[in-house]
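cache lookup: miss for this entity combination. No prior model stored, computing from scratch. Input as submitted by user K.M.:
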Amino acid sequence: MIEIDRVSKAYDGKPVVDELSLTVPEGAFCVLLGPSGCGKSTTLRMINRLVTFDSGMIRVGGEDVRRVPPEALRRRIGYAIQSIGLFPHWPVEDNIATVPRLLNWPRGRVRDRVSELLELLRLDPATYRSKYPHQLSGGEQQRVGVARALAADPELLLMDEPFAAVDPVTRAALQGEIVRIQQATKKTIVFVTHDIEEALILATDIAILERGRLAQWGTPLDLLEHPASAFVAEFVGGEASGLKLLSLRTVADRLHPSEVAEGEPLPSDASLRDALAAMAARHTDRLPVVDRAGRPLGAIALADLVR
Amino acid sequence: MALQSGIVAGPVPPFRLHNRVLPTLFAAGVAAVLTTGFVSVAPNRLLSGRPIGLFAAADRRLGAAICVIAAVLLLTSFAPPARALQRAAALLAGLLCLLVLAASGEAAAAIAAGAPTLARVSLGAGFWILLGTTALALIDALQRAGAGAAERCAVIAALGVAIAAMAHAGLFDALSLAREYRTRHDLFAAALLRHVVLVAAAVGPAVLIGFPLGVAAVRRPRVQEPLFAVLNLLQTIPSIALFGLLIVPLSALANRVPAVAALGIGGIGPAPAIIALILYALLPIVRNSVAGLAGVDPAVSDAARGMGMTGQQLFWHVELPLALPLLFAGLRIVTVQAVGLAVVAALIGAGGLGSFVFEGLGQYAADLVLLGALPAILLALAADFLLQMLAALAARRLI
């Protein structure tokens, strides 16, 4: 879907992105992760040409982005940012309809699309379509921001720390929504964050950037189990990465089939982190495991968690 | 702070003071009535007059009505605030305004009836203070009643109609101001129109020049410093000096280029006045354009560009509407300022209401000065009110 090929960008002679190469497959949820100043936002903004790059090549859907007029390119790519940037003088409906109207969709189609998107983001169309941004909570504003980015059904969605400014509870809900939407629509998403926890929840693929270069590219499990450098190991959490690893693996990976144990059983799709928490809470080192239908599958022991 | 004050002796429960503005205005009004002349009478229009108090000058019934209504109005400040009460207070204040005006006309007519034809009855300090305090009481009551734009418009229109009807009925005819108006009544309409034209001819081009300058300054921040230095410098030149400074280059231009002179442009007259007014109007227009456009949240512009708006679309659909309230504020400042400055422009032969002011100053005839100054003040107030309403309308669409 996106091919970034030896792309560089410097500001005042200082390289911000340095010979970066990255290929994001279609349908991937790719998270660009790294400390501030690592070039992740710049990389994102080069994809829709809000930032021009000095050298290299970026292709979206096989097409060189510099061959397309920037406005036409951007209307094909959804865009959501941390500060949301809703138009304060337009009601929710007009905000969401921005790109469809730029593309001259017929009125009826725009109206239907706005209703569809509000429902997708769990906002009641009758209540919300005529509200103004200042009448919405932070979380509702960001839902409208995401709906606006999705409005013209773009094949690709660029999101720059979209949930960084909302409270933790709202953030968790929005993260759930975006995963659900991505799985339902199979859109390709490039998502910038500095938050490793958020990256592990959302990503199918993570690119860790270090001073404008790609430090590692892989699945969340790859990064935790085989960090390519001390920088990556440190960034994904050092010692604490063990706990994150536990939260990515499920009980099904480590259980002993046909063994039995006493107590309230764990579902097989629970994470190892949940299993550890359950054992600590119940003062036991063995718990039975059942499948979704409640049929016994076996047991898991404390020692299995660190195996 | 709760001020406890019993207004009647005896077992009546003490009322609490809820409004400090009305008692203050009431005290000022009482002091004005007791110590200053409501009207002044002079043997002719050039001599200064002898002050006559409200009760000596006006009909007893009018004086009594003013006292009773003012006292009732004062009482409302001791009652617990309620919307209906504030509306009633506004009504009383409006009525008081009209009564004060009527008393001035009635007093002038009564005094003039028993005096030689050359005698003049002018408005005294007491009249102006009473009118001012009742107008402030009206504004205060409207504010406390939470009156919206429509209500305020209606109140002003009602007052305007009532005053016009009183004038039409000849109630003010005996006042010196009205007699000055009658002798120049054919010149007055032309002067008023000329004044409005001067202001419009200055404010229109100032917006057409100033707004693009503001846009350019926002786009290229390096331009801002020299631009504002020049505009600030212009603003510091005294208006009379600027009018004078323009005489030399413009008359030289008119002498050299006959086509320019044929257009009526010369060292004196409306041309230098309009140029000077434009120069004064530029700073507020440019400054508010820059503030309005620079105040647009960068995240909003970033989102707009990221979604594929062109530069033109961004400007017309996002930046301009968001800057509009500040643009209106700038327009309001320069319009009011131009109405005032255009009075001075009469000095260089630009005409307008200022011609009465300077003629009156030359003759030492205060009422002729008023004939120019009063309409200019009303014009400024009207422009201010109108543009304030427009700005509120623009802002309501935005907030």
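stored under new cache key. The two ends of chain B are 35 Å apart (CA to CA).
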